[in-house]
Amino acid sequence: MSENLLKGKRGIITGALDENSIAWKTALKAKEQGAKFVLTNAPIAMRMGAIQDLAKECDTIVVPADATSVEDIEKLYAEAKEFLGGNFDFLLHSIGMSPNVRKGREYGDLNYDWVQKSWDVSALSFHKMMQVAEKQDVMNEWGSIIGLSYIAAQRVYPFYSDMAEAKAILESIARSYGYRFGKLKNVRVNTISQSPTKTTAGTGIGGFDAFYNYAEALSPLGNAPSEACADYIIAMFSDLTRYVNMQNLFHDGGYSCTGITEEIVEKFSDKK
Ligand code: NAI
């Protein structure tokens, strides 16, 4: 693996809850590749304490911020800028949560206050992070901003509930802000659409095991593990991908382009 892909780069990594989190793996790899960054998560996630261990390992600090609060994001950027000694080259939005999914509400019986909460936490927070970054002018030229998405933005996964719309909004925000930030500061904005991954957010979705195994069977390469997702994020933060902008990038072992496999044909064939 090449080294120092992110040498001299500074940034913010949201969403590291525990060692399974995609953001956790990304932080370790960003450190390995020479980046300096600040970790952040919702104040409520601090209680678990694990993120402090990660911070120690990465020689950094944790600044609590609720990503739905513009005020918290403003404070986060101000503190991070002081700690890092300059503006940012990358931002990772690795945040998702739906009260409807958590509490098992069906798509035909959604609690609309919770829908607002799902969309605010999982999608609008991405816009807020960028709008505050623009207003505070904290992004360096040729910076890179990534959000994490899922294929339920394009296709129906019944148990994904109101998170499907959240991801569709997230991807749309990446396009719109990728245009705006591109023009303003040559900053690119993309989403990575990741395979099902065994994390707290992932396994909280009803029927997760089934669609994890199904995707594993359908993908020619199998499901992309979280470490590989972290590698892709690092590549997207590096200068090797400077002209990739406004894209939803599938990172799924080929799942999204596969209609059927020989094994599935065999399984469903009438001739046994
Ligand atoms: P995770 O549960 O480790 O991370 C989700 C994070 O969101 C947690 O750290 C949580 O504290 C944070 N969060 C929730 N509400 C917040 C708020 N108000 N302010 C700030 N942070 C808040 O799970 P994972 O899988 O690493 O999730 C990261 C991203 O990857 C999410 O956007 C998720 O939807 C996405 N993703 C996950 C997949 C999976 O199967 N695990 C598949 C495709 C995308």
TrEMBL record:
> Which residues does the annotation say bind NAD(+)?
15, 21-22, 95, 167
Q: Name one GO molecular function term.
A: enoyl-[acyl-carrier-protein] reductase (NADH) activity
- Per its UniProt record, what InterPro entries does this chain match? Enoyl-ACP_Rdtase_NADH, NAD(P)-bd_dom_sf, SDR_fam
Keywords, A to Z, come to: Fatty acid biosynthesis, Fatty acid metabolism, Lipid biosynthesis, Lipid metabolism, NAD, Oxidoreductase
| Gene3D superfamilies (alphabetical) | NAD(P)-binding Rossmann-like Domain (3.40.50.720)
Active-site residues, as the UniProt record annotates them: 150, 160
Q: Biological process GO annotation list?
A: fatty acid biosynthetic process
Report the EC number(s), separated by commas if there are several: 1.3.1.9
Task: Show the catalytic activity.
Answer: a 2,3-saturated acyl-[ACP] + NAD(+) = a (2E)-enoyl-[ACP] + NADH + H(+)
Q: In which pathway does it act?
A: Lipid metabolism; fatty acid biosynthesis
The record's similarity note reads:
Belongs to the short-chain dehydrogenases/reductases (SDR) family. FabI subfamily.
Q: What is the protein name stated in its UniProt record? A: Enoyl-[acyl-carrier-protein] reductase [NADH]
